Amino acid sequence: MNHSYNASTISDQEKAHKALLELEIKFNKKPRTGALGIQGSQIQALTGFNRIFEQYPYPVVINAAILKLADWFRTHNNVVKFYVYKVFKEASHQHLEKIINVEETIRRILPILGSNDTTARSITLRVLGCMSIIIAEKLDVQFGIVQRFELATDRLELQAAIWASDQICARSNRFPAVIFSKIDKKLRDPSTSLDIKLQVVKIFRHMHEDIGMTREAQKTCLSLLNDPATGSELVIVTLRTLTLLISKAVIDQKEQIDRLLEYALNDTRDDVS
Description:
This protein is mainly alpha-helical. It is built from 16 helices and no strands.
């Protein structure tokens, strides 16, 4: 019976590799002149990868597919990069956890953060965020994301850096301490737009593993709440974030309940109370 199972597995893997080869041939099909930067056959090839993940969920198959996608991501234009990102986005964590050559995958994708192209960097940050379940503790990944979080001036890139930071924070023991001062600085900077602050402050909900970090995040949230210049929308998001943080860290829960009641009963703004 075991022999039969192994034979079936080998047969499935052979079929999977054949299917991958067919997708590669379709992707590399000689292009016709077009203005979109991607051919229909390439889109068809890229959208076929998640079907292979579902049909043949073997580590060796998924690993080969992801490495191929990472190669295309590295060498092709932003339209192809975007469709590769969609594959990563739609792939389940269960599939991504089966990648064998994580370092090789990162080595193909991470250097794009050094590109002069803000769109390419934005898509790369999104891909890294999608991979957070397997790369959250990688120092080079953390450094690259923090750097773009600090330096990004393009709105889409900054939003991608915030999202990637949030994803890594959710799964890393080390990263919250690395990113904390950058978040604090963004929130205190008067030039930071409201919508960016609304996204950034939410990252604090992940800072519950270390009590010292929890206290620091709590302190920053309270500083925002006590600032008369903080608008109602940011107050609401900060209160919600602080509640999530404290509930996970299991500290000062009574004080937070009292704080919520205080805002509910006494804040004169309709959207807060």
